[in-house]
Amino acid sequence: MTTELLFRHDAYQTRASAKVLAINERGGIILDRTLFYPTGGGQPGDKGQLCLADGRVIPITTTVWDDAAHTCIAHIPAEANPLPTVGESVELVLDWQTRYSHMRIHTALHLLSVVLPYPVTGGSISLGEGRSDFDIPDANLNKETITQQLQALIDKDLPLSERWISDEELDANPSLVKTMSVQPPRGSGKIRLIHIQDADLQPCGGTHVRRTGEIGRVAITKIENKGKINRRVRIALLN
Questions:
Q1: Do residues 116 and 45 touch, judged by C-beta distance below 8 A?
Q2: Does residue 110 surpass a pLDDT of 70?
Q3: Is residue 1 in some structural domain?
């Protein structure tokens, strides 16, 4: 049983049809294909709706991987909603406003790792904001300076692209992995690289904008000391 990951082909697609493959023991709805990104890598799972042929609408509150091998995705319905039956056809409707915010923040965090070229020890994304943790020996960081450098990269309107490499190619180039806390997913034999032209190249399974200019205006809102050399840098969208 496998879920086709439509968001990998087009992160801007907001509607699609699918068929119910199973309902898991937690009430999660497993489909043969999905637009919804599952929770992982610091990015929240997508939410939206499943629309049934009889007119019923099932709100989806989040989306998660259903198995350790990352082959199936479970769509978690809001409580007290009737579930579809196995084999039933549904239409997926993505909560685009939330997803697009996640895409903008996620791409901005890639660029933040360019401005601050240090090991990344953690990170998370939420609506309109996000954060990355870095191992930085010098705690003398300036919010305004980092904001200016980050905004300058964003304003270049650099295009993004992706390509795939094998596990062996990644092992031969360990410097591609910036995030110490989250390793690229393995097991399929290939790993997805996200390339920001003239700026960044790193493994990532999340969703991103097509060009950095779509991120818009940002600000570094807070820098926290989380340990002897660990610094948490928070970022927010301003428009």
A1: no
A2: yes
A3: no
